[in-house]
Amino acid sequence: MDFELPDEYEQLRLTVAEFARDAVAPVIAEYYIKGEFPYELVRQMAQMGLFGLPFDEQVGGMGGDYLALCVALEEIARVDSSLAITLEAAVSLGAMPIYRFGTQEQKAQWLPLLAKGEVLGAFGLTEPGGGTDAGGTRTTARLEGDEWVINGSKAFITNSGTDITGFVTVTAVTGQRADGRPEISAILVPSGTDGFVVAPGYAKVGWDASDTHELSFTDARVPAANLIGERGRGYSQFLQILDEGRVAIAALATGLAQGCVDESVSYAKQREAFGRPIGAAQAVAFQIADMDARAHTSRLAWRAAAATLVAGRPFKREAAIAKLVASDAAMLNARAATQVFGGAGFTIEVPVGRFYRDAKVLEIGEGTNEVQRLLIARELGLPVTW
Ligand SMILES: Cc1cc2nc3c(=O)[nH]c(=O)nc-3n(C[C@H](O)[C@H](O)[C@H](O)COP(=O)(O)OP(=O)(O)OC[C@H]3O[C@@H](n4cnc5c(N)ncnc54)[C@H](O)[C@@H]3O)c2cc1C
């Protein structure tokens, strides 16, 4: 049993860590404070091949796997979560539905652009009426001739309104199943489609340099060929995508938790009170020791989930546990790190202030932590229902 990353992943980790330290850390506060999307940093990530990490070389990818993506996400989130979620959402939510379920034509049209980071795809599941009850989708798509006509709205969709956004894939009710339940399908809607409107960005609590919008569709028409995968399989396809996405979010949360350790260790060594470094006080040192234990545990959890996924074994429980443990760790570490910094931590000009704001959404996005507990309980065979 080996808990170390294999060499090629460790090399990737070091390369991304260097990028995060040298290119992201010096400039990200400015983007965050202005609430601007960091196009230049996204371009640099694209040049490094990060958007293509888990995709085959035939479609323009780097020939890596999901573990590689997670390794990169942890190192970026160690410095900044807005950039990390931009990469996570683009790869695991935007491109992955096409990679896993798309037709040959859809793959040929979109994957080379997505894998090179020249175009971002978005994933539209959540609606203003609810995200947890995603099966209650109200957006509809009716087939008229050789076109889908889409009506409805989606809420909180990441990467949906950037200058390089190419499309959003939405879940929509396309009919009724034999058992009377709605038939839900996934349909790709290109940016600029008539009737598809992107609202101004949200004023968020965190992830300020990432792009999030509400979307509305009024008789938006797209070709019938824009169906992703099988008609009526959209909901289950999206749930599969979310299982994988949870491993990625766990890696991202671990990065934030580790960033809190990094920042706190360095601050507690140099900040003095009562004539000695604050890290000499057990109350401070023990908080940092607890932070380190949580970051370490989270890393073990997401790596175990990623290894299970990559090995092709069932990983639903492992993914839910990793997301639950790592997002809790991120929240607790961000709170503790801000405390270690005192007043200096209560500004978004410093990383821990941004970590504090960015941590909360990790308990919400890609399935709330209540959803993770439900998934774990079900995997244990408990007869739990909503
Ligand atoms: C910054 C940001 C980016 C996002 N990006 C995307 C994206 O790219 N694509 C996308 O589709 N979505 C995205 N989301 C949406 C996110 O996935 C949802 O917010 C999340 O799934 C929760 O849905 P909701 O907000 O509608 O909360 P609700 O479903 O209304 O839930 C509210 C609360 O009630 C709890 N709850 C609900 N039902 C029960 C129950 N029966 N028992 C116990 N507790 C329950 C939930 O756990 C939660 O705590 C994003 C959200 C944010 C904030």
Task: Write a structural description.
Helices cover 49% and strands 17% of the residues. The protein is of the alpha+beta class. The strands form 3 sheets. It has a 4-stranded mixed sheet with strand order 1-4-5-8. It has a 4-stranded antiparallel sheet with strand order 2-3-7-6, with helices on one face. It has a two-stranded antiparallel sheet with strand order 9-10. A hairpin with a 2-residue loop joins strand 9 and strand 10. The chain is globular, with a radius of gyration of 21 Å. Flavin-adenine dinucleotide binds next to helix 5, strand 1 and strand 3.
What layout of secondary structure does this protein have?
Blueprint: H1 7-24, H2 28-34, H3 39-47, H4 66-77, H5 81-101, H6 104-115, E1 120-124, E2 140-144, E3 147-158, E4 165-176, E5 182-190, E6 196-198, E7 212-223, E8 227-228, H7 234-270, E9 272-273, E10 276-277, H8 282-310, H9 316-341, H10 351-359, H11 369-379
Parallel strand pairs: 1-4
Antiparallel strand pairs: 2-3, 3-7, 4-5, 5-8, 6-7, 9-10
Helix pairs in contact: 1-4, 4-5, 4-7, 5-6, 5-7, 7-8, 7-9, 7-10, 8-9, 9-10, 9-11
The structure holds flavin-adenine dinucleotide.
The N- to C-terminal Cα distance equals 38 Å
Poorly predicted residue ranges: none
The proportion of residues forming helix, as a percent range, comes to 40-55%
Bound molecules: flavin-adenine dinucleotide
Strand order of the largest sheet: 1-4-5-8
Given the helix and strand composition, which structural class is it? alpha+beta
User: So what's the overall shape?
Assistant: globular
SSE run: HHHHHHEEEEEEEEHEEHHHH
Record field, number of beta strands = 10
Number of H- or I-type helical stretches: 11
Radius of gyration: 21 Å
Per DSSP, what share of the residues sits in E-state strands of 2 or more residues?
A: 15-25%
Arithmetic mean of pLDDT: 97
Main sheet attributes: strand count, strand direction, barrel closure: 4 strands, mixed
